[in-house]
Amino acid sequence: MANNEKPLDISIAENNLRIIHYLQTANYAEAEKLCAWLIDSTEAPIFEPHFYLGVALQFQGRVQYALEIFKLAQALSPENINVMQAIASCYDQLARFEEAHSQLMVALAVSPQNDIVNANIGAILEKLKKPEEALSYYDTALKMNPKNLTALLNRGSLLANLGRKLEGLAHCRRAHQIHPQAFGTLYNLADALLGLFRYDESLAYCEAGLVAQPRHANLLFKKGLVLSCLKQFDAAHRCLAEAQVIDLKVIENVLPFARNMDNLIHVNLNPQTLYMDAMYQAQTKCFWAYRAEYIAEFQQAILNPDSLASVVDNAEFAFQFLSLPLDWKTRLTLNKNLAERLQDMAWLEGVPPFNHKFLNQQLFNQQTVNHKPTQKKPIRIGYFSSDFRIHPTGLLSRQIYALHDKADFEIVAYSTFNADFKDHVRQSIENSCSVFRDVSALSDRQIAELIHQDKIEILVDFNGYTAKSRSKVMAMRPAPIQVSYLAYIQSMGTDFIDYAIVDSQVVPPKNESHWQEKLVKLPHCLYVYDTDTDCSPAHKTRQDYALPEKAFVFCCLNNCYKIEPNIFDVWMRLLHSVPDSVIWLLVSDELTQLNLLNEANSRGIAKDQIIFAPSLPHAEHLLRYQLADLFIDTFWCGAHTTALDALWQGLPVLSCVGDNAASRVGASLLMALEMPELIANDFEEYQEKAVHYATHPTALKALREKLQEKKMSAPLFNTVQTVQYIESAYKTMSSRHKAGLPPISFDVPFEELNG
Fold first, then answer.
1. Predicted TM-score of the model (pTM)
2. Can you give the residue range of the structural domain that contains 302?
3. What is the mean pLDDT of the chain?
4. What share of the chain is helix, strand, coil (3-state, %, to 5)?
5. Which of 210, 410, 678, 722 is 20 to 30 Å from the Cα of 556, by its Cα?
């Protein structure tokens, strides 16, 4: 503009062109100035300067101000689709997703055939956690305009997130064919191929995308992940480091689960860690191509002090190894490494050692003041968990809290899971405890201090090294007696856990050296069960679940990460040996289904003999067990809650006993059920028993009838009695502590409660 030329000397159209030029060249400050000048200088309000001012402000990050300006623009042009979408975009940036959705629905009513509006509605629905609805809007947008880039990109990512990875990859390839130069299609292809363990092809698309945008932090990080999986660790490290320099939040952007990780884990996130985790994720999808190599490297990383021990010292790996063929020394070593790290992290919090002398002092005072007898105070038990909800731990333990003798025990629960929606399990547990505390928003230090202030005498960890665990709290030692029970059937490898509650089947005498904690063995079985669980006859039929009416149905509804090649070999031999037989597996995602079908095919089994059960609401899931003939257990990490559920529904469970604790739970349950005939000592016996029951209907019928009788008479499902045994254990722990005696291993005697 010439120095003597004023904006009003130029037509409105020309001013609009100048503003658009500023916006297109990212000169947002100049666009803002010109818009503001025009708005102030014109007598009647004009739509365009208001709209473009909002755009300029939004691009400068002043989103709230932009929203207010867009609303003024909307008042000048109430049915303008562009301003409606701009308002929705501001709401989106402000994380006001419901308002964004409402605004877009108004736009859709004005222009129902607008593919851009439909695609944007899909994007907002994803953020509202309504993925299936989002998918339908993307489909609608693509029917209107097959080249809509937003819908093409988002649909591919969403399909992968829904577990439809192969369909997602096919869609990403089509999107790339339509928009071969679009960066987003390259990014999505790299991501889709990484999720399918096709690392070389993924790397090629990472590199193609980085040619277009060499400083794209997310794709650089993706390339680092791919290189990690290819064991090109030095190159991976460079990519990961560069990505974090460009964007400090790149880890959270690419790996959303990392938002809840400890800050120190961010520092230790390295290519070797990523490689190990990627190899484990392949196991969870039953992709076994790299299994032997991965397991050897995993074991070396733990046992070789000169290798990568620090790579596998977080809680994720301590849970992952439960399903891997590792010996007890390897398992214990890993957990000792993890426990030492947790104690170091606790020390870094600067929490002073808690003083636990008050309990002994209370007892001394009661015994000495005037030598008068005083009323016995209840033992304060703290249950600490993220799983007071519909979760295996919550479901198993639901009855414990109400069954405790409130004259002897005061029950305080500490929930580290924020339940915005309280399911019936959470509500029941809350109502059964003396005190229920939601501590999910507190730091580990604050939780530990609260537990200590509550004067908890026995703190029971219902997580161990599992997902969402807050084990650092236990490492701070907020209670004088700390116990591991129920959730993590393995030694935690530390002295900040005094006792582990087990039983003599899960930990026979020969395996006691596998544990660092003192062992408290309950009679019969360590597990409890919610005997209010519905086991009435199922109303649905086999046809409802695509099961052949006349076939023999072997069933294993364990999680897929527990399935491994050796047990799968046995299962396939069963299908060869038993005419008209099928196996029913709990597999929802198509990638795992395809991997298992490929494995079955390589063993000569037709795909129609493998039937996949989808995830269902918990109540319906339980009742479908009744439609199977025999539950065949996994090996290295057997069925725990799943086996109890199957037995309660009247389905016999065949289990092969191993050496590590997680492979001995099935035997523990069956011994407590007084049905040892369902325990096999090796794979050969396991196969023989399965074939026998599958080919001898009379024997199977007798087995099922015995199970129905033993459900009511054997100790396994006598939860009232098991809780009494647990209380007896707590009393012994408390008595020893108050007497100034250290923890020791002991058996809770059967006669004590039943003599």
1. 0.86
2. 271-348
3. 91
4. 60, 10, 35
5. 722
